Amino acid sequence: MDATTRNIQGAGMEIYFNKAVAWLTRRGVSLLGSRLLAVRGRTSGEWRTTPVNLLTFEGERYLVAPRGHTQWVRNMRAAGGGELRLGRRTEEFTATELADDRKNPLLRAYFKRWGWEVARFFDGPIKDADDARLAELAPGVPVFKIS
Description:
With 147 residues, the chain is α+β, with helices and mostly antiparallel strands. The protein has one domain: Electron Transport, Fmn-binding Protein, Chain A (Pnp Oxidase, Chain A), CATH 2.30.110. The protein has helices at 3-26, 71-79, 104-118, 131-137; strands at residues 34-40, 47-57, 60-64, 81-86, 89-97, 143-146. The radius of gyration is 15 Å and the shape is globular. The termini are far apart. Mean pLDDT is 86; it is low at 1-9.
C-alpha cells in the first residue's frame, strides 16, 4: 500500500472518528474533554459545528487547532466566540487568540494529552517536543483562550 492510499484511508477513518465523537458529545458523553464547538459562519451567519478537545491549563480553558488555520478557526476569529456543547448543556464564550510566544506551555500540555490523536498532522514527533520545536510549530497551530 502506497502513502497516497494510506492517506486516503486515514482521512476516511478520521471522518468516521469525528462523527462518532460528535455523536457521543451531542448525547452528553465527553471523551477526554471533547466538546462540540459551534461557531457562526463568517459569511453565512449559520451555526457550524465540529468536535474539539477542550484543554484546561492552570485554571484557564483553551481551544487548540492542531489542523492549523481551518474553517472553524477563521470563523472564530470573525465571530470572537461561540458555544461549547455537551449533551443538552450549552455554554456561550468569548475567545481571544494567543500570540505565538505564549503557546509553548499550552502546546506541550495539549500534545501530552492528545498527541496520540493529532500527531499525524505534524512532521516529526510532538509528544515530547522541546521548546525550539514548539516555537517552530506555534505559528501553524492557533490557540484561543476562552472565557
